[in-house]
Amino acid sequence: MTKPRLYITRKLPEHIVGEYRQYFDIKMWPYEEKSIERKTLMEESQKSDAIVSMLTDELDKDFFMRMKQLKVVANFAVGYDNIDVKAAKQQGIIVTNTPDVLTETTADLTFGLLLSTARRIVEASDYVKKDKWKNWSPFLLAGTDVHHKKIGIVGMGRIGEAVARRAQGFEMEIVYYNRSRKRHAEESLGATYLSFDNLLEQADYVVCLAPLSEETKNLFNKNAFKRMKQSAIFINASRGQVVNENHLYEALMQGEIRGAGLDVYTEEPIRNTHPLLALDQVICLPHIGSASIETREAMAQLCLENIRLVIQGKEPKTPVFN
């Protein structure tokens, strides 16, 4: 009996993929750090029953209209703005994602990025490595405190709540803005719901964890940055398109906010000519929010398990609904 064909659009560890070879004829893009070419993606997907896709793969309406055999797409991410879910649904193709397994890891990175930006940790490390440290002085690379400050979380989903739990350990005052109020978060975390504008005006640290949508695209623009305190630090660990990067650069250059920590960008990978990279008060990471070995392996496992369940006629663990 012929096994269903599964194509994986980025190289994943064999010790995880291997256990699923009993169920599928598995083919895989041979590179870990190089995105699959569009032509290859189309050709391989057209002859597959299932694919594991990455957030860098654009699965648009044109893609799904060409699929006659494909039954399920397992996206290796929580977000799925790279996928036209409506078009997939019209073709009867199930889409899944990887929530929950990366929540705590992404929250670790987000809070670490906040700490690093506030205390100028990357800048200080470079200062030593470049042999600039000649003497101790009272205000050498002095940053700003995190403890007992006010953190404003925009997007109080699973990751937002996990970041808030970490903020509790620093005895921070927690305020948040979300599309809908999260009463359980208010009760369990002592978080206070504010309007978006009020949060911007009050928070010492503005942390963006909002999903990308038509409503959130360019949410952080010139007007938003002008509302923030001059001492505020902005952190983005959600999606790059939520921020107008030109407006962020202008706000930093004009001293409208103190600094920024970024893990995501409008266009990825960000080039070394990007003006934000020239600013000492900005930390830029290469989209590594969930990049721990344990979590990435768990994400791969969940993708493959979702596919196995769908192909066997069962409900996937984490389906995406439009």
From TrEMBL:
<dbReference type="GO" id="GO:0030267">
    <property type="term" value="F:glyoxylate reductase (NADPH) activity"/>
</dbReference>
<dbReference type="InterPro" id="IPR029753">
    <property type="entry name" value="D-isomer_DH_CS"/>
</dbReference>
<keyword id="KW-0560">Oxidoreductase</keyword>
<dbReference type="Pfam" id="PF02826">
    <property type="entry name" value="2-Hacid_dh_C"/>
</dbReference>
<dbReference type="Pfam" id="PF00389">
    <property type="entry name" value="2-Hacid_dh"/>
</dbReference>
<dbReference type="InterPro" id="IPR036291">
    <property type="entry name" value="NAD(P)-bd_dom_sf"/>
</dbReference>
<comment type="similarity">
    <text>Belongs to the D-isomer specific 2-hydroxyacid dehydrogenase family.</text>
</comment>
<feature type="domain" description="D-isomer specific 2-hydroxyacid dehydrogenase NAD-binding">
    <location>
        <begin position="111"/>
        <end position="289"/>
    </location>
</feature>
<dbReference type="InterPro" id="IPR050223">
    <property type="entry name" value="D-isomer_2-hydroxyacid_DH"/>
</dbReference>
<dbReference type="InterPro" id="IPR029752">
    <property type="entry name" value="D-isomer_DH_CS1"/>
</dbReference>
<dbReference type="GO" id="GO:0016618">
    <property type="term" value="F:hydroxypyruvate reductase [NAD(P)H] activity"/>
</dbReference>
<protein>
    <submittedName>
        <fullName>D-glycerate dehydrogenase</fullName>
    </submittedName>
</protein>
<dbReference type="InterPro" id="IPR006139">
    <property type="entry name" value="D-isomer_2_OHA_DH_cat_dom"/>
</dbReference>
<dbReference type="GO" id="GO:0005829">
    <property type="term" value="C:cytosol"/>
</dbReference>
<feature type="domain" description="D-isomer specific 2-hydroxyacid dehydrogenase catalytic">
    <location>
        <begin position="11"/>
        <end position="320"/>
    </location>
</feature>
<dbReference type="GO" id="GO:0051287">
    <property type="term" value="F:NAD binding"/>
</dbReference>
<dbReference type="InterPro" id="IPR006140">
    <property type="entry name" value="D-isomer_DH_NAD-bd"/>
</dbReference>
